[in-house]
Design goal:
The structure is a single chain. The chain has two helices and eight strands. The protein has 122 residues and is of the alpha/beta class. It has a single domain, classed as 2,3-Dihydroxybiphenyl 1,2-Dioxygenase, domain 1 (Roll). The strands form two sheets. Strands 1-4-3-2 form a four-stranded mixed sheet, covered by helices on one side. It has a four-stranded mixed sheet with strand order 5-8-7-6, with helices on one face. Strand 3 and strand 4 form a beta hairpin. The model has no long low-confidence stretch (mean pLDDT 88).
Length: 122
């Protein structure tokens, strides 16, 4: 029945602060934005075959620093790592160099975990 992952989503407390991180630090570009209700805002970012969504809905959906983690594949791991360090983004775990990949777990402004990942060439 299940064919693929439709999207990953994170709750955020401040949509503008989150946008500054996801767009300004990670370089994502929105492909959908829904904010008909000022108490509930949603932005989607297309990444490859899937979507990463961020939503701000105080009292209904709260950020969780121990929640799920999206792993985002990067073109240049060293460059991505240098950028998050330069921007003062919290590093939660790593960086790690495993046989099949390199990865580091960082946190967005609400403490949501995001993995930056680079597969190694075979």
């Amino acid at each position: 029945m299940i064919k693929n992952i439709a999207f990953f989503a994170y709750a955020v407390s401040d949509i503008e602060k989150a946008r500054a991180f996801y767009e300004g630090v990670l370089g994502l570009r929105p492909n959908g934005e829904f904010d008909k209700d000022p108490n509930s805002q949603w932005i989607e970012y297309g990444i490859g075959e899937t979507t990463l969504g961020i939503g701000c809905a105080p009292g209904m959906w709260e950020p969780s620093p121990k929640g799920a983690s999206a792993a985002l594949e990067v073109d240049d791991f060293d460059k991505a790592l240098a950028l998050v360090k330069e921007k003062g983004v919290p590093i939660i775990m790593g960086p790690h160099d495993f046989p099949p990949c390199r990865m580091v777990v960082i946190a967005d402004p609400d403490g949501n975990r995001i993995t930056l990942h680079k597969r190694k060439q075979k």
